[in-house]
Every structure is written in structure tokens, then in C-alpha cells.
Amino acid sequence: MIRHLIAVMYTLTMSIWLTAFFTVSSQAFALGADKTQITASEKKTFDNPRFEEIFEQVDDGDINDASYPVLIDEMAQLIAEGDIERTYRLMPKQCMAYNFLEEQQNQNAHEFLSYIYKNYPDIPPAIRISLKLCEATLLRYKGEITEANVMVKAALKDAQQIEDERLIADAYSMLGQIASYTGDFAFALKNLLEAYERYQQLELITLERLGLLDLAITYRRLGETETALKYYSELEQAFSDSNQIALVMLVKNDMAYAYEDINEYQMAADYYLAIFKYYEKVHSDPTFTARVAVDMSSALIRLGQYQQALDYLDKFEAVISPSVDTHYSFLHLYKAQAKHGLGLSEQAIPHLEKSTAGFNKNHNKRGHEMLLELKVEIYESLELWQQAYEAQLELYDIHLILDKALENQASTEMRIKFDSEKIEAENAELVAFHQLKDHQLTIEQDNEKLQIITLALGFASILLLILFSLYFNKKSKQLKELALTDLLTQLPNRLCFYRDAQDAFNRLSQHQQPFSIISIDIDHFKQVNDQHGHSIGDIVLKTIAQIFRRKLSQTSVMGRVGGEEFLILLPDTRSQAAIKAAQAIVDEVNFVEFSNFSENLSVTVSAGVATYKDEANLTEIIKKADLALYRAKNQGRNQVVYFRDDA
Description:
Blueprint: H1 2-9, H2 26-29, H3 33-36, H4 49-59, H5 67-78, H6 84-96, H7 103-119, H8 125-141, H9 145-162, H10 165-182, H11 185-202, H12 205-222, H13 225-241, H14 245-261, H15 265-282, H16 286-302, H17 306-316, H18 327-341, H19 345-362, H20 365-381, H21 385-406, H22 409-442, H23 447-483, H24 494-510, E1 515-522, H25 525-532, H26 534-551, E2 557-560, E3 565-571, H27 575-591, E4 605-611, H28 618-634, E5 640-642
Parallel strand pairs: 4-5
Antiparallel strand pairs: 1-3, 1-4, 2-3
Helix pairs in contact: 4-5, 5-6, 6-8, 7-8, 8-9, 8-10, 9-10, 10-11, 10-12, 11-12, 11-22, 12-13, 13-14, 14-15, 15-16, 16-17, 16-18, 17-18, 18-19, 18-20, 19-20, 20-21, 22-23, 25-26, 26-27
């Protein structure tokens, strides 16, 4: 039971407002001209039990389910002439029933909102806030992220003024989703947890679970993929038990993303294919299958099935609208990857440009990062060195933004995890309280027994809390270690490295003590995975991590910060000593007989070294080490290059 509670609290997800995928008939949205003439002073009271029954069902229901637009249509037909109160209540549900991913439906939703605002001047504040949240969702799918964020913040303020807990929760949820999408994970976690707690208090079970799914997605994006998968499995089971199949598919879709994150590409492709077939069967709107086809092509590319991926992308390219859906940018990113994989690198370049515009518009830093990495690879393969260098510099700028966000992510992540444990303990106390109340009702006639039982329960509660405290302290240590460790190499992960390196930078720079940074990258690591398999690639990563432990002192700060990328901070180390340490690692890697793991396998690494020279912040010296690494690769790889300003 305790493990289940802990698992549920850290489960994460994919959005209450992000799931507005359905088309509702124009008849359901036709708010007749006779209704526009009714003012608040003319409001009438109507009995409509069937409407109320359906409304309760959809209010905490699954708007992904194919029955959702049908129910909205039925409610519209049930509203009697002059029933302005139910007309108002239905409006936000009608708005969310449009498929924002389809360009025409997105436009229809915009026209629907314009019609409402123009013809219904006396909309109650709560309804108007709900409509604004729907409008913000519409803007988000059009790529107008900044405008959507501003609108949600205004809606949150308005909801707080009227003290509407449900709307406050919805606004926090949307703010968290947008922050998670744009890479501001600390802000995302804070707002998503706030939304989750409010849904829990309101006993809105489906929205509570969707809130957990949003949290899970954010943690996955933070890099806690293995742990996230455990919690996805529990959510998948919960939605399956409640027969919410559309939500099962949502969870499966993010599980597929997670499997890609840990290089389980065949598993990811199998999940995508199952979702693809489900949407083909359930939805007549091709945008659903098109989006899954784009996602599936990513896994197929990783498996080397470039032509099959390209076939899917070509088939659905006309369905994905450039003005609405971020998947348009990923579609062209994957087309560029597939063509590059087929040796058609020059044909990939136009797709890079189409993808760039979409990622810039949507403020998608993660997608932009993937795009720039591909640009560097393609331009290098075509020996377009200037373009490759410019793309590399852009990539550094993206990393600067992401690294800045990392400064407060570690403390925020830990605080939220510990807050979650606190909530679990409070829930356990609440359960004990309800058990006590039940006992009091059954033994009300016997005061003596009541006192004995009360004392016994009080003692048991204290004992239980002590046990919980001991257990949670142990789990907290385990979770902290898990959150800061790369599961494959057992080195500190990106989050941990930047936290520890920042501490070291602050300490050493304050006292003007020397230190150096080494940036290391495994040469042609993609070829290792493609030619020898990802299991061999994992062995290579583990072996190189072991070399670091042998060759570096315990005072060194080291970490795996990317797939095959590592950073090392050497305290009290000047340039010559740092170069010597880097060369020792390069030589040791050359000495290892990697062919023992796989026939004809050889592995080398390149290293860039930079030494502290009054840099204002950590990212500046890391950038110099990365530039030195880039030069090492351009000069033939398998070598160490020291950063010099005049180079």
C-alpha cells in the first residue's frame, strides 16, 4: 500500500487541456438567435435531469473518448428554449470538443468563441474564465505560446478572485503543461503539483490522474525515464480498470516516448503501432493517426528503417498543418533524418529549414536542440564546415538557456518529491482518522470501551507515524540518489553534475583558485549503436565511465550530460595538468580491446580542455571546453585540444 501511494505521487503526464481532440457537430454548437436575446434578468428555471446526468459524466470525464462529442451534441439538443443557465454551462464543453489539431476545426473554434463573446455579453465570470482557458489551448496549438501563457495567468488571477477551486486547478495545470513543454521544468513541477493537489481535494478522479500523468511527463523530460515507466504502468492499469481506453492510449503514447529515451526503439515502435491501429479503427479524423505516424517514424529511424519511416511521413505530410501542430516541425525533422540516413543528405536540407520555423514559433527548445544536432551532423557530412560551425554555436546558445534552468531544478525536484511524501503521510493520517470515526459510531453506547479504543488508536497512530517517518527517510535517500545518478553508467547525471559543478565554481572562483573543465565525446558513437547494437553501445559507455573513475581523483566533479557526452571539472588544476589528465583518458580508451565485446569494434574519444580565467559563470568555461572539443573533432578526432582565445 505504501509503495503504491509513493508510486502514484510521482507518476507523471500529458494534459487535461492538451486532449481537446474531437469534432462536435455544427448542430450542437448552433446557439440559436432566440437564445442570444435572453438577458440575466429574464433567466428561467428548467428541470432537465438528463442534461445534469450527462454534464456530471463529462465534467470529470475523458474528453479523448469518442463518445465525448456525441454527449456534447446530446446536451445541446436537451437545452430548452430560454434555458440560459445551461446554455452558459455547456459553452466551455463545446469549445473543448473542437479538434484544435485540424486547421479548419481550429478556425471553427476561433469563430465559435468570437460568436459567444459578441452575442452573450452577460456571461458569468466562471464561464468566461473557462472559455479563456479554452482559448489559451487554441492559441497554444497554433504555436502562439507566449500569448497562451499570458492568457492563462490572467485567467488564474480571475479564478482566484472569485475563489473557484476547479478553475484555479485548471489554470495551474495549463501553466505547468506549457512550462514543461518549453523546458522550464522547475516552474512546471511547482504548478502541476499544485493542480494535482486541488483535483485530489475536489475528488475529480480522472483529472487527478491526468494531473499525475502531466507530472510524469515532466519527470521523463527531466531524464528520470526508468522510474517514470514504473508509474506509467500503474496509470495504464488504473485507466484500463476504469475502461477509459482513450486515456490508456495517451499513457501508452508517452511510454513509447520513454522507451525511445532509454534506446528501447523496438519496444517504442511496437507501442506506436498499437496506438496507430487503435486510432485508425476509432477515429475518422486522420489527424490522430497522422500524429502517431510522425512519432512512430522517430523510432523506425533509430532502428535504421529509414525508408519505412519516410513512407509514413510522406503519406501523412498533407494532414499535418504547419499553422497548428508542432508535429509539423517534427515531421520535417524526421524526414531530414530519414533522407540523411538513406544517403540523401542534400535533399534533407530543405526539411531542416521548414522544421526550424516551427520550433522557433512554438518555443520548443528540446525540438530545436535535436534539430541543431542534426544540422551539425548533416553539414559535417557534406563538408559544409562554416554552416556546421554556425549550427554548433546556436546549439551552445540553446544549452546556455537549458543550463540556466538547471540551477534551481535540483532543489525544486527534491523539494517536490519530499512534499509529495509529506502529502502521503497526511493521507495516511486522514485514513486513520476516518477509521477512528467509524469505530466511534459503532461503539457510541459504551464510553469506557470508546476511551480504550481511542487511546489504542492514538497510540497506534503515533507508532504508525514513527514507522512512516523511518520509511520515508530511507526512501528519500534512495530517491535522491536515483534522481541524481545516471542509471547506466552510475556516474552523476546532467542535473547532479551542474549542481555540483556550480558549487565548485562558486567556491573556487571566489578565492581565485585554479580549475579546469574537460569536455569528452565518444567518436562516431551513433555508428557503434547502428553497426553493433545498443547493448554493445551500453557496454562502451560503462567501460568509459570506469576509466574515468580509475584515472581521475575523488575531488573531480564528473557526469554524463548527454548520450555520449561527458563533462569533468578538475579543482586546483591548471592547464598542463588538465591536458595531461585528458590525454591519459584518451590513451586509456585506445588501450582497451573493445573487439572483445563485438567483432571489429574500436572506440576512441575526443576531448576539449579549458582552464578558468576569470569567467563570469560556469557556462562560459564549459562553452570554451566544448569549442575545444569541436576543434578536436574537426582535426580528426581521438585527440585532446586546449582552448585558446586566438585559435
